[in-house]
Amino acid sequence: MTNKKHPPGPDCVISIFKNQCRKPLTVWMQLAVVVLIFGILSGCSIKKLAVSQMAGLMEDGFPAYMKETDPELVRDAMPANLKLIEAMLETDPNNPTLLLLACQGFSAYAFLFIEEHDPIRAKKLYDRAKKYGFAMLKQRRLIPDAIYDLDAWDKKLTDAGKDDVPAIFWTAFAWGGKIQLDRESPSSLADIPFVIRLAEQTAILDPTYWFAGPDTFLGFYHGNVPKPIGGKPELSKQHFEAALELNGRNFLMVQVLYARSYAIQVQDRDLFNALLSEVIESSEDVLPEAALSNAIAREKAKKLIKQSDEFF
User: Fold this and answer.
1) CA distance 251 to 301
2) What average pLDDT does this structure show over 256-263?
3) DSSP string computed for 115-133
4) Distance (Å, rounded) from C-alpha 155 to C-alpha 152?
5) Domain boundaries, the chain
6) Which alpha helices (DSSP H) does 115-208 contain, by range?
7) Alpha carbon of 168 to those of 51, 90, 296: distances in Å?
């Protein structure tokens, strides 16, 4: 009598993944193999268990991206990886790890690689990231029913803790990125106070997160909005200086954003040149855990300094 063949269980899937790890494949290629395998699993709960296992592995692999010194390698790899995350979210749409990776990933991809040459596409990517960010905040009960009520946001955010910082920060980053590329829209400009409130909460809870990301974010926003419509250049300077102190001037994107916003807004060409020269002349060994961002910061600094006559 022929034995019935049963689909592999999650333990078998993980075993296959471990075997694949011994072969010369990238982490993301290995994950793609696993996703194909769990596609044949029967039963929703088994699929979700497999997705949960893979989500943790993807989260563990994220630092490898940040340590990469070749931006083009990451640029070419990210779209497939982002679609892989979305494919897994189809099976487990409430997976908190995948939601964070999606919000963070689409935001970072738009900011680092797309917005400079294709702002329309970048705006769509930020909007997609924002959708995942809102899903995270809803999951954590940090989003009010009245989304455009600042007092309602205040009440929700007072309940936030340090473990909520990544969800809040990347939601603000995505939302803010979309606004930045849609500044001619009155409705987008009306969203600025809500984004600022989210960023302020992250600065209160953990100012060191993402290499002093909260102060960097606030510095850029207060310095990039013209003073007549609510810009606060002096507050921008305070936030940027706080960020530089917190990260030891080693996360070079801070200097780039400082030059691109505050220095241009107050027409301080000497500061503009000093900040960008500091980035360009920096050692490639500085802050290895942020090698990707620093490599792109150097590229952006070189472009900005060549355009200085357009700004001053």
Assistant:
1) 13
2) 98
3) TTT-HHHHHHHHHHHHHHH
4) 5
5) 9-93
6) 119-139, 150-157, 165-180, 186-189, 192-205
7) 24, 23, 25
